[in-house]
Amino acid sequence: QVQLVESGGGLVQPGGSLRLSCAASGMTFRLYIMGWYRQAPGKQRELVASITGGGVTNYADSVKGRFTISRDNAKSTVYLQVNSPKPDDTADYYCSASLGSMTYWGQGTQVTVSS
Question: Which tens digits make up the pLDDT trace of 91-102?
Answer without folding.
Answer: 999 999 999 999
